[in-house]
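To illustrate the input format used throughout this study, we show a single complete record. The first block contains the structure-token representation of the backbone; no residue identities are included at this stage. The design step must infer an amino acid for every position from geometry alone.
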């Protein structure tokens, strides 16, 4: 995620718009996007400030944030459980419908694996 524009640039853009210039003119003049100028005007109207909003979602607020403990115990109890089985159990037990990729990201974040075989074991030809 990129860095927010500096407050000085934000205040100069708003001052330029307040002088009566259109948003697109301000965008060209300061070499920013018209959407940035529109969002900046909207931000000032809503908050009264030019400070950038907080970026990102803060982490840990996904659908599975409340059941990570359950997932850990379930994987520990049934070591060979697959992502599809975990997804089905989440829907059945907790009523949470998620894609198996979401479950994988949670497992990866917990440092767990879903492999059924040890990493050195191979199938024979």
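Output of the design step:
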């Amino acid at each position: 995620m990129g860095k927010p524009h500096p407050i000085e640039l934000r205040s100069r853009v708003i001052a330029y718009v307040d002088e009566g210039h259109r948003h697109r003119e301000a965008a060209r003049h300061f070499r920013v996007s018209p959407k940035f100028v529109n969002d900046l005007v909207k931000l000032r109207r809503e908050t009264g400030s030019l400070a950038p909003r907080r970026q990102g979602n803060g982490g840990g607020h996904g659908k599975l944030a409340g059941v990570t403990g359950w997932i850990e115990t379930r994987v520990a109890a049934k070591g060979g459980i697959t992502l599809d089985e975990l997804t089905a159990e989440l829907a059945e037990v907790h009523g949470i419908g998620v894609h198996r990729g979401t479950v994988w990201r949670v497992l990866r974040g917990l440092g767990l694996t879903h492999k059924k075989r040890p990493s050195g074991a191979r199938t024979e030809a």
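Structural context for interpreting the output: Residues 58-125 form one domain. Residues 34-47 form the longest helix (14 residues).
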